[in-house]
Amino acid sequence: MNTPAVFLPFFNKLNGRQKDVLISAVQNRHFARGDVIHHGGNCEGLIVVTSGRIRVYALSDEGKEITLYRLLERDICLFSASCIMPGLRFEVLANAETETDAFIIPASVYKSLMAESVAVANYTNNLLASRFSDVMWLFDQILNKKLDTRLAAFLIEESQLNDSNVLYLTHEDIANHLGSMREVITRMLKYFAAEGLVKLGRGRITLLNVQTLSDMAKDSLK
């Protein structure tokens, strides 16, 4: 069982009672690949990733998806407990991209800790600022960068995340990550293939020229 002491930077700054309350409230969860972890306006609590990977994304009224950011080991999904922050109306969805273990801190418990502990309040504010920075960076990419640059960056980042130049993704998957349309992604990938940058297969993309893709993507890589 994973414990908050290992994954929460502020844990050792809590007093004994606060530590006991937090430990007793934590809910350990396991999610299979593809499981929905958080949906829209639900406010179950803070999700702390202990292993695996979570995709956090937004969904338009027309049903178009766009990935906002990924959560890896030790990352925290703050928007899954947005009700603890008055005035915050930012609905997101989250699902498990891989087999994922996490623990959830109920929103009511975390809200009480924020009110009692300066360390928890400061950590939460810093985390909130970081997440909004991620989202604003994404908006800048959408508004100011060409799709070929963003697609190249996505392929490079996926390769790094999975430690492989062979990516098991459909064109629809990529479109959902980038907030584009499948047909547009297909055309762009065919162009990449014609340039010798990738090799396309059924449900599979092999990166052939990582250096050129990296050069293309340099303005869209974090």
Topology:
Blueprint lengths: L3 H4 L8 H10 L1 E5 L4 E3 L6 E7 L2 E6 L5 E7 L4 E2 L15 E4 L3 E7 H10 L1 H27 L2 H16 L3 E2 L3 H8 L3 H13 L3 E4 L2 E4 L2 H8 L5
Antiparallel strand pairs: 1-8, 2-7, 3-6, 3-8, 4-5, 4-7, 9-11, 10-11
Features:
single chain; 222 residues; alpha+beta; 4-stranded antiparallel sheet; elongated
Strand line-up across the major sheet: 1-8-3-6
Query: What is the helix/strand order?
Result: HHEEEEEEEEHHHEHHEEH
Largest sheet: 4 strands, antiparallel
| Percent of sequence in beta strands | 15-25%
Q: Report the span from N to C terminus.
A: 33 Å
Mean pLDDT: 90
Helix content: 40-55%
Question: How many strands appear in the DSSP assignment?
Answer: 11
Radius of gyration: 19 Å
The number of distinct helices, counting runs of at least 4 residues, comes to 8
Q: How would you sum up the global shape?
A: elongated
Query: Strand pairing plus helix content: what structural class?
Result: alpha+beta
Residue runs with pLDDT of under 50 for 5 or more positions:
none
Descriptive notes:
There is one protein chain. The chain is of the alpha+beta class. A four-stranded antiparallel β-sheet has the order 1-8-3-6. Helix 6 packs across helix 7. The protein starts with a helix and ends in a 5-residue tail after the last helix.
Summarize the structure.
The chain has 222 residues and is of the alpha+beta class. The protein has helices at residues 4-7, 16-25, 107-116, 118-144, 147-162, 171-178, 182-194, 210-217; strands at 27-31, 36-38, 45-51, 54-59, 65-71, 76-77, 93-96, 100-106, 166-167, 198-201, 204-207. Strand 4 and strand 5 form a beta hairpin.
